[in-house]
Amino acid sequence: MSEQKQRSKDIIRTANIAKSAHPRLKICGLSRPCDIEWVNDAGVDFAGFVFARSRRQVSPEQAKKLHSMLKKKEIPAVGVFVNETIETIVGLVEDGVIDWVQLHGQEDEAYINELKSKVSCPVIQAFSVRTKEDVLRARESCADYILLDQGSGGTGRVFDWTLIESIGRPFFLAGGLNAENIKEAVRTGAWAFDVSSGAETDGFKDREKIFACVAAARQKEEYN
Question: I need a surface site. Which of 27, 37, 51, 177 has the fewest CB within 10 A?
């Protein structure tokens, strides 16, 4: 088995622990070496790299360099895509640029099943939640995990969390999360929180806000 395949399996096994004392935390939209230093020091559970067109977008070359700086086997790199070709995603996984895949476009079940047949890593499908029907649709997704968001991602807005009661499967909660409202979001039963703008100041990741989000997710009063 190649070193990359073994590392991927180790990361999947580490991140897929069924039970945890606290929800996991993903900081998304990382783009600078200092961002990686901060998430390593804070001990987040996932690092998100955005490949879709966005002010947070990174190139495969940037992502590979940043990925190499992450704590090995402890923090999986999640690639965020919008209607990307399957071949491109598979290439990034095989090249060791990302460890998980997150889909934020109009990818259907046929697309997801084909992708899953070609990669060994977990696949997350994002859903915009406006009604109870949106939640029911998300619950039936063939992806390994689902992510519930207010919109297309990175909007900084919260949706009505009462819509997701008793969803019945592990989910990432996104949309306007920050250190203040994560304390309330714990009651949703989310498997993980996905934070982007809530860990930024003036459009860039902020060390103190990253640490504060970790403290909130783990229900700690103090952080460094």
Answer: 37
Q: Has 121 been annotated as catalytic?
A: no
182's tokens: 């994560």
The rounded distance, in Å, linking the Cα atoms of 145 and 20 is: 16
User: Rounded to whole angstroms, how far apart are CA atoms 114 and 179?
Assistant: 37
> Distance between CA atoms of 189 and 143, rounded to whole angstroms?
19
Cα separation, 24 vs 44, whole angstroms: 8
Per the annotation, the verdict on 149 as an active-site residue is: yes
CB of 84 within 8 A of CB of 107?
Answer: no
Coil, strand or helix at 176: coil
- Digit-coded pLDDT (tens) for 93-124: 999 999 999 999 999 999 999 999 999 999 99
